[in-house]
Amino acid sequence: MHQTAPPARIDESAFRREVRAWLADNAAEYREARAWPEAELVARSLAWQKRKAEAGFGLITEPPGLGGRDGTAAMASIFAEEEARYHTPTFTGLGIAFGMALPTIRKHGAPEQYRRFAEPTIKGEAAWCQLFSEPSAGSDLAGLRTRAVRDGERWIVNGQKVWSSWAHHARFGILLARTDPTVVKHQGLTFFVLDMRTPGIEVRPIRQISGKSDFNETFLTDVVIPDANRIGAEGEGWACAMTVLMNERHGASERASVSHDSVENLLRAALAAGRLDSSSVRSKLAQWWVEEQGLKNFGLRIRAALERGETPPPAVAMMKLVSATKMQQTNAFLMDLGEYGGLFSEPDRPEQEQVFFQYIWSSAMMIAGGADEILRNQLAERVLGMPSEPRMDKVPFNELPGIKSS
Amino acid sequence: MHQTAPPARIDESAFRREVRAWLADNAAEYREARAWPEAELVARSLAWQKRKAEAGFGLITEPPGLGGRDGTAAMASIFAEEEARYHTPTFTGLGIAFGMALPTIRKHGAPEQYRRFAEPTIKGEAAWCQLFSEPSAGSDLAGLRTRAVRDGERWIVNGQKVWSSWAHHARFGILLARTDPTVVKHQGLTFFVLDMRTPGIEVRPIRQISGKSDFNETFLTDVVIPDANRIGAEGEGWACAMTVLMNERHGASERASVSHDSVENLLRAALAAGRLDSSSVRSKLAQWWVEEQGLKNFGLRIRAALERGETPPPAVAMMKLVSATKMQQTNAFLMDLGEYGGLFSEPDRPEQEQVFFQYIWSSAMMIAGGADEILRNQLAERVLGMPSEPRMDKVPFNELPGIKSS
Amino acid sequence: MDLHFGDELKQLQEEVRRLLTERVSANLLRRLISEDEGYDPALWRTAAELGLLGAAVPEQYGGSGLGERAVCAIAEEMGRAVAPLPFFSSICLAAEAIKLAGAPAQKSAWLPRLASGEAIGTFAWQEGLGPPETDVDARFENGRISGVKSPVPDALLADVAVVVCEGPRLALADLSKGVRREPLRGFDQLRSHAKLVFENTPAEAMDVPDPKDALRRLYDRAAIYAAFEQLGAAESAMFMARDYTLQRYTFGRQLASYQAVKHNLANILVMVELARSNALYAAAALEADAPDLGAAAATARLAATRAYETAARENLQLHGGVGFTWEADCHFHYRRARLLALSLGSPAIWENRLIEALTKKNAAAA
Amino acid sequence: MDLHFGDELKQLQEEVRRLLTERVSANLLRRLISEDEGYDPALWRTAAELGLLGAAVPEQYGGSGLGERAVCAIAEEMGRAVAPLPFFSSICLAAEAIKLAGAPAQKSAWLPRLASGEAIGTFAWQEGLGPPETDVDARFENGRISGVKSPVPDALLADVAVVVCEGPRLALADLSKGVRREPLRGFDQLRSHAKLVFENTPAEAMDVPDPKDALRRLYDRAAIYAAFEQLGAAESAMFMARDYTLQRYTFGRQLASYQAVKHNLANILVMVELARSNALYAAAALEADAPDLGAAAATARLAATRAYETAARENLQLHGGVGFTWEADCHFHYRRARLLALSLGSPAIWENRLIEALTKKNAAAA
């Protein structure tokens, strides 16, 4: 069920026509969805970004010198909507760049720093990775152990990062490291941009339960970072990290809210399997529809509030919470529809592999960018104003249980 | 679906025959279920208890002088099974007496005390009530504020108790009171038997959401208790209370496990409403059946383990957890079956009032004898060995937040 | 589709909220239950004076013509306050039915009186147990109705009823003319219901060309108003639980600081926000008379029913033993949630309506 | 009905558990997946030597005749260890089918070989998507089978298959005789499956008088064994999650000390205990061939499926990001839980079987 698109305002429709024409000329080869091998996807993503920058669509709100056109946020969304009609290549390293790295550097860094990192990125010369999580610091990100020690005008970094997606294709990394272990854990962190070509960086793939290796472990051994790449003040890394995470979650919800009309697909699958007359199937489809439409409409509310300059409804954290669980349930359902046979992908049903992959992937979605449990804490605390749990970690980092002992 | 009864052992079948014959002679008037007015129910309950005691069935494991016959636990269960074929009157005041008060006094009190309180109870002369919970101490029972102050060979008690069911019909009450507020809260409690005829006791009914008033608030003003009625040592009331609660929960599970075959009733109701061909109705019935049978079979496992002198499976706390939730769900289902009309009790469908009452009552069942949340904590801690949450209440009682301020 | 309620509506809604906060206390509700009173007539008059009853009645019939979204906003506040008023029966059902299916004379006769609160209306569709409108037995012939409708909401108060008869046909019955009313004992003690017994009772035909379609549209519209009522009520139950757990200490901590409590309320918050988003979309679809109104109404209703039932149940549970007392007021929502879940048809019925709508759309697209 | 497993069985079960703990490491499982190996032949030989395969095979056919409860106990341990053995296919399906429906000569020919592990059996019922046995196309005529059965568990390893053909009729096929096997890509990478293509393949009739009834009984029996397999696996996943949360610190506390984590595991514990109680009852009913075996089997299967699916999912979730790594081993259960949930028919099918059984009983009582 498609909802009626909001009526375009007069001054925007001309821009939309321009965008459509440009895309028709430049994105024709991306009309259909295609799966590229990893290296090709990366190369195509960067090339496509470059082409957009040359036409002033690289980051519309930036000036022309930076690959933009001094445009408005509304223009940016129009471009995004129109681009979404194509299957243009965008690998994760660009998502991190535009969704997390640049907004954070703009907010917390010096203008010189923003310009230095934004330019190659917008022009399609640099992808990014995120070096935050560690084997012992996931939900509790502030518990990370990677150390950065100042040495004059530079920093020497040692440690191990994990879940750094596509790090092997990144030109830069945003890095959170501990610069003072003698203060409470949130206060001893500093935020850096790491040039991924620096010696001492080793990127190793992590084999996932899907069998793929989208993520890496990154080992840092005496890696040197110039102080000029420090973003924000020493010890203020946590504030930068929060900006990154806010942007990450918002991005995840955006993606969730524009997910394809999956309940309509489920309905067709149930129909094809002759199960649409089952009231329990109907009941499940109805519940998922309620969630899918609820998220879509919640997204419309957010967008409308932003457009009016109002505070959006604060429960954004719910978007990933709902969509990840639904993803697990609906893909289990698609297996169930086939009964025993639904657990096998014969050559005439290659889409079943996609069902398996999504069922597996849902378990990562329920963790990445904030585990469900953490999101529920946040909803209770930030939206409902309930108190946080008694904290046991308000002591200097090096006196924490689990740190002391190790 | 009735399960095959376990094959009776040879030496037990004679006893079973004797019981059947006695019940046939003495309980004939209780063949059918009847609802008596409150006062009559109390009188009949005590009279029936008296008659059982005269025949040595009052408490089978006790000696004849105490209304028993020095029988075994197996004989007691046989009697219970056979009595359950009738609808003999047993009001809550006797359930508390036999299920909670006497076992606790036997375990923690002196033999003289046990005999003193057991005799009138077994002979049908005394019902009991429980004076534990307070307005500000529910799940956190040890946070209670009722004070008992020693005055030579007696104690002076002041405070307010709540949820003391049927207190107005009780001859004795089991009372938990704070005798030392300067120590950690669990350590300052003492356990007493309170003669409900003592001056200074005021029992006020609490109106419940069902509209009824099964429970009371009991106000204690300078109530005197002789030290001879103290059970266990001063400051050891918590251990006694734990014995009471264990027995209460076990009792609740026993009742749950012998609940009538309610899913079969639901099935008949669904059939009558023409809804049994709905797969979502089938799915719900199947799930409740799984729970109902699971509890019944769990009960068989407990009994078998006890009979073999082994430790029963430790997850007893789950019985109330499962049955109370199921009670709420199934009674909502019985309303749903009738659609809008299911929310009204016309004279030709008086059973609908019972559905309403059970739906309401389920919400009490989810709290009484341990809220669901507390039971889940217990299962995690006692069965799975997970740690308790950080405790904020390991300080002297009179320094607790919420106590200090009040 | 703009989901936003404009400033005018927001102001109206706040006004209603203030009024009901002031005038609808738990004491009032408990008193009404004890005295078996169906509603608060003084509050009804005030609501009428403020123009709340005629919000979606066209100006030519004495309404303010604010539109359907205004009714949604008011219904939300009615739900939040568990307001003891026949608003849903008279405005969301009867007035809507007359607007949809009434002849011009019927509109002129009744809409102004409903909008002014002078008359109370209701809608009589159910006949005992089972889904609405299967095997309607009530007959309308030669200007007379025979049959029994039950349960009918606020039927003891009502002056006029729109009655679904076999066919289906719709008839308009002036209840002062020979209708027997038998009060019913219901699970929700705050909204009175009765059985209406028609014995050759005079009534007027509502000769809409396609009564079946009119009924479908009426249910869609009523479902959206009900969704707002449920939404306001769900939010109220959620905040009631939140506030109690903030104030209650157990084991030396605020109850609200326990993760099980927080997650429980977070889950309810998610349901409430989904319900609100879907309700806002449905309200916009309603005002625009959008082609996907049927699906939008079912979506809003299902989301709101789930949110309210869960919030009402968990509110009681989170109050612990206190919640089981008459004075704790959790029972108003615990009972009302069930009433609203079933009164326009259970979730199973709306799931079917939704899937039918989606299937039809899918077939059309194929 | 005595639900207790006697000392002899408990000892056997502990022995199996020790063996599998020792011999089935996560490394082994990961290696078998990488190498696309269907099972561990050395472990299979050991299991045979210990008499685990012939536990429910009568002594006259080379089994130990320990009885069905022994198979249940062994299946529980197989599930706990995610043991890479064709135990379920060969013993719980093929041997059971031959016991139920085989002619004496067929029993003599195959049961001793299955009990000794010398031959591996399987059961071929499914034909692609959809519920089992609706529209069976495979035909058995004149001692030959034609048709395609898929998926068939452990079919690449099997020497003999009991094949459901149109009718229904049951046939016994020696798989060395002209059967094409096409390996399948399955969601669970640890239990291999294949498509069996019969093209006029010689086979023997299994002329049981009422094949429909034999199939019903076979599914009931297999469902009970599967319930034990699921039960052991669910408990294993539950303890795996518990152990991880005990060892992991987050925000300065053990993960296991968080109430959301504790309640999650407590809920799983409840499901596991319900599943165990229902499985024990079903095992007793199986050994006694009780009249309520059908309902008991469905009850056990539904309870066990729910417990295992939940435990496997939550185990992965409670491991956080680590759970998503190949080395964390949560995926064995995450995938296996789905296989066991569907392999004998989804919960929807067993819900129907259960309700049919209860309805029949209710009708008989009325």
What does this molecule look like?
The complex is a heterotetramer, with two copies of chain A (406 residues) and two copies of chain C (366 residues). Chain A is α+β, with helices and mostly antiparallel strands and 406 residues long. Chain A folds into three domains: 12-90, no CATH class; 129-235, Butyryl-CoA Dehydrogenase, subunit A, domain 2, CATH 2.40.110; 244-383, Up-down Bundle (Butyryl-CoA Dehydrogenase, subunit A, domain 3), CATH 1.20.140.10. Chain A contains eleven helices and eight strands. In chain A, the strands form two sheets. A four-stranded mixed beta sheet of chain A has the order 1-4-5-8. A four-stranded antiparallel beta sheet of chain A has the order 2-3-7-6, with no helix packed on it. Chain A is globular, with a radius of gyration of 23 Å. Chain C is an alpha+beta fold and 366 residues long. Chain C has three domains: 7-116, Butyryl-Coa Dehydrogenase, subunit A, domain 1 (Orthogonal Bundle), CATH 1.10.540.10; 121-205, Beta Barrel (Butyryl-CoA Dehydrogenase, subunit A, domain 2), CATH 2.40.110.10; 211-365, Up-down Bundle (Butyryl-CoA Dehydrogenase, subunit A, domain 3), CATH 1.20.140.10. A four-stranded mixed beta sheet of chain C has the order 1-4-5-8, covered by helices on one side. In chain C, strands 2-3-7-6 form a four-stranded antiparallel beta sheet, with no helix packed on it. In chain C, a hairpin with a 2-residue loop joins strand 2 and strand 3. The longest helix of chain C is centred in the middle third of the chain and has 37 residues, at 211-247. Chain C is globular and about 75 Å long. The interface between A and D is large, with 53 and 48 residues.
